[in-house]
Design goal:
The protein is α+β, with helices and mostly antiparallel strands. The chain has helices at residues 2-32, 49-57, 62-65, 146-156, 160-173, and strands spanning 36-45, 71-78, 81-89, 92-102, 106-111, 118-129, 132-143. It is 38% helix and 38% strand. It has a 7-stranded antiparallel sheet.
């Protein structure tokens, strides 16, 4: 019985050691990945620029069409425009703020916190097209943690969240709500 227990402990120790070594290797590689990144995803939506703009600016409606957004708390308004809000997702609260707005052509928002270990801006550029509106979303982000830099660069990709946003927006214009809701 003791021999079996020792063998089990060796296996467990080997597995834990291998996982720790793997995480350390990912963090080491992550130190070589730039803290800052930029990614853009463009899509044409079958709606006029004013309609697309209205959807982007109506942050209180995000839970209806954006996957993973469970709630929105408005923190600040400028007249009837929301300029600061907090989105609640499975990852917790995310404070955001509009930093530039030129209706219906340009909207720039940023993460409104310095203590998250990441940050950056999202720039939404809207251009009229024959069939609707060309929306380009650019994320200019910063990731402090080397392990998260590794995962973002090599596992998830910088464009994953941008693609999901564009997919959700397209679904909302097609009459559907957020996927999985």
């Amino acid at each position: 019985m003791r021999k079996g227990r020792r063998l089990l402990l060796r296996w467990i120790g080997g597995i834990v050691g291998t996982l720790a070594l793997g995480l350390a290797a990912m963090a080491l590689v992550g130190t070589a990945v730039e803290r800052a990144h930029s990614a853009t995803v463009t899509r044409v939506h079958p709606a006029a620029p004013e309609e697309v703009w209205a959807r982007l600016a109506a942050v209180e409606e995000f839970p209806r069409w954006r996957t993973g957004v469970a709630g929105v708390e408005v923190r600040e308004r400028d007249g009837d425009r929301v300029v600061a809000w907090t989105e609640t997702t499975g990852f917790g609260p995310m404070p955001l703020r509009v930093v530039e707005s030129d209706r219906p052509r340009l909207l720039v928002g940023r993460i409104d916190a310095d203590d998250l270990g990441f940050g950056g801006t999202w720039t939404y550029r809207l251009e009229p097209e024959e069939t609707g509106t060309r929306l380009s979303i650019t994320e200019d982000g910063v990731i402090e943690n080397p392990l998260f830099r590794f995962l973002s660069r090599f596992v998830f990709g910088y464009e994953k969240t941008l693609r999901a946003y564009q997919d959700d927006l397209a679904r909302s214009f097609a009459g559907g709500g957020a996927a999985g809701r």
